[in-house]
Amino acid sequence: MGTSAPRLDILAPLSGWLVPLDSVPDPVFAGKMVGDGISLDPTSGSLLAPVGGVVSNLHPAHHALTITTAEGVEVMVHVGIDTVMLKGEGFFPLIEQGQQVSAGQPVIDFDLDLVGRKAASLLTQIIITNGETVARMQPATGMVDAGKNVVLSLQLANGKDVLQAVVGEPQLSADITIGNPAGLHARPAAVFASKAKSFGSDIQLLLDGNEANAKSVVAIMGLSTKFGDKVRIRAQGDDAAAAIAELTQLLNDRCGEKADEAPLAPAAAPASAQQQDSDTQLAGVGASPGIAIGRIVHHRLQEFDVPEQGKGANVEQQAFARATEEAAAQLDLVKAQLTDPAKQAILSMHQELLQDPDLLAQTYTGLADGKSAAWSWRAAFSAYSARLEAQDNALLRERANDIRDVGRRVLALLAGVKQASLELPAGSILIAEDLAPSDTASLDPSKVMGFCTRTGGATSHVAILARSLGIPAICGISQSALKLPEGLQVILNGNEGTLAIAPTAEDLAAAEQEIARLAERRASEAKSSMQPAATSDGVRIDVVANIRNAADAREAVAKGAEGVGLLRSEFLFDNRDTAPTEQEQAAEYCAVAEALGKDRPLVVRTLDVGGDKPLSYLPLPKEDNPFLGLRGIRVSLDRPDLLRTQLRAILQAAPLTKLHIMFPMVASLEELRAAKAILAEEQAAAGVTDVKVGIMVEVPSAAVLAARFAPEVDFFSIGTNDLTQYVLAMDRGHPQLAKQADALHPAVLAMIALTCEGARAHGKWVGVCGGLASDERAAPLLVGIGVTELSASTPAVASVKATLSRWSLDECQQLAKDVLALSTATDVRHYLNQHAR
Ligand code: PEP
Ligand code: MG
């Protein structure tokens, strides 16, 4: 038999839709004063025994009964709310008190119509009235069939195991630090809520005096937790202790989120210069790259006429249950047509929202007040989406769109309006105020050439989906796009974030040519990607790759990378609770080195954490201004033990490759000297001499003083992502500043030029490993300024190499001279576009 506690399954006594008990519009049931369990919105009128046992109580009004099982568990079924007032009218008992019944046996018939009309609600509660017999309760969700599906799965307490916790005494966890880089955003919140729902206890998540229902995704997101926040869990009920233990563990495990899965700043969005509207073009933010020609098709969100007054709580409840059920089925259908698990996950989250206890509770409150289901539901989801929209976390703001999306789906069903489907003619350019993520997911890339939305940013699900579908897209387009005539032929440029609205025949021909040229070019670049990178007059430039691990290294080499210019070592060891040992680290560095071999360079950057890069095993203190706080080398010098371990591990890879060690975020010579002193000691101890040492140039002070750093380093590598942020004082993850935080800003280029000058005077080389190195248009400019190594993202390696082969060094230098004289990022982009080859 083993020692596991016995289980008891409670069958659905009626067919219908399950509803969490705390959303029942009756404080006695919702407050679990009778006991814990579940509620069901019935569609059948013959009540079946949910368990076998003795009918220990049959209410004289025949609307409720209790069955006591052989294990001593008392299961009460209470049909409807306030049905006691009917004094038995419409109820026909088929059994007597004291009678033995078996599970599934019909016990009470009732007139569904009559009871529905006369009672406040038909919601039927299935409750365990002696909770002390139960150690754990797992409620089901969704639609159930009477006598067939389980509604509650119980793990029974065996005597001494009976809950020590007294129901009514809340229990509190210790502080738990949120380790999710982007806080509890949609996905981890959904995982957490779903786990919380498996407990019968009332559970709240507490943060700084605010609390959220732990079973509600929208409530958890509304708490707006951030990486490093300290939260607590409060639980009250039979299984409170287990709930706290398991949910604490879940939070410590970051709700299953790997660090590199967490959505971070909108770095993936293409940088586009700030464009202006004119008579012939409208401008927004490039959300997904590429050029498309097509005809405008407007997608307008329908307005729903929703009556405030309901037709009775019961009728409205049933309508609501049908609508949410249908919405879930529709989402299943859309999901089944998708192959990308990331897109499916977005729709699963929408399904989770359909069962969110806070959204449901607020809706049911409206119903209990006599409002219609549509009115109550709209009020509920609008309030929650508005709450998310007011958050200072861009990711959570974007999720407001998901709530509206699923909200409108149910609303359309309640209003009996068929939502205009997104079946578009071939060659469409879609224009919408807002595109629902579920609509975007189902777009057919063979018909939709591109789309523009008024709202949304680079982190929106709409933008992410567009990039994964490979559809050029613009977000944040001006209002006037919504008024463009249907069928108008336009050119959408997702690289620039522009929509040409009055293209001439020449413009169209040029765009067509450009589309064809790009397709052809990509194909031919791929063919020559293994050639050594050089200018047309044979000057060698190293085109290498940015990587995170050995698998990336292998892929990079296969795609033509001539080495690695940046191994972001922090990614190798994220997602763990303790610092990796020297041997664990060495194994990883050696694997990368082996993938490259002895003839290719490997630049390993020491741990670069802080700012936008948290590290799970190294909780850093919360800072008001983390980008100006303990970051990069500052952390390593603060924790020399970690730095020493890492350096010893890196040095083990020296015999396998051309090893370079690079320190990140260096702002002063003292920092460089301190780090080098530690490295020298470790090198001496390990007997390794052949290692090059360099710094990242990401802080303006390092660029300005490059000539003074140069004698003390072997190389520089410019991190244009951070350098841009620090030169322009613009947060690299700020969605509204995405257009302006442009690495081609003349001030950033001037810093690059200063670095090259300083390095040249001492015969040292300069590379670029920030995002600018992946921009093929910038490649000849950087080489002209004096950069001799470009460390690009692997997919960009072939195009950067091919571009360089079209320019001689003289031409690159002339280009640099011209560009360095320009005054704005827009001018620079324009110039580079005009001179692109
Ligand atoms: C940079 O800042 O440009 C860089 C390459 O470093 P990271 O993006 O990892 O901060
Ligand atoms: Mg950086």
Q: State the fourth-level CATH superfamily of the largest domain.
A: Phosphoenolpyruvate-binding domains
Low-confidence stretches: 159-166, 260-274
Main sheet summary: 8 strands, antiparallel
Number of helices: 26
Bound molecules: phosphoenolpyruvate, magnesium ion
Q: Estimate the strand proportion.
A: 15-25%
Strand order of the largest sheet: 9-5-6-7-11-3-2-13
Strand segment count: 35
Net shape: globular
**Tally of separate domains:** 5
Rg estimate, integer Å: 32 Å
CATH third-tier fold name of the largest domain: TIM Barrel
Query: How many angstroms does the end-to-end distance come to?
Result: 76 Å
Helix content: 25-40%
Q: Supply the CATH class of the largest domain.
A: Alpha Beta
Q: Give the helix/strand class.
A: alpha/beta
Q: Which architecture of the largest domain does the CATH hierarchy give at level 2?
A: Alpha-Beta Barrel
Average predicted confidence as pLDDT: 87
Cofactor: Mg(2+)
GO biological process, one term: phosphoenolpyruvate-dependent sugar phosphotransferase system
GO cellular component, one term: cytoplasm
Domain HPr: 171-258
Give a quick set of tags describing it.
single chain, 837 residues, alpha/beta, Glucose Permease (Domain IIA), Glucose Oxidase, domain 1, eight-stranded mixed β-sheet, binds phosphoenolpyruvate, binds magnesium ion, kinase, PTS_EI-like, Pyrv/PenolPyrv_kinase-like_dom
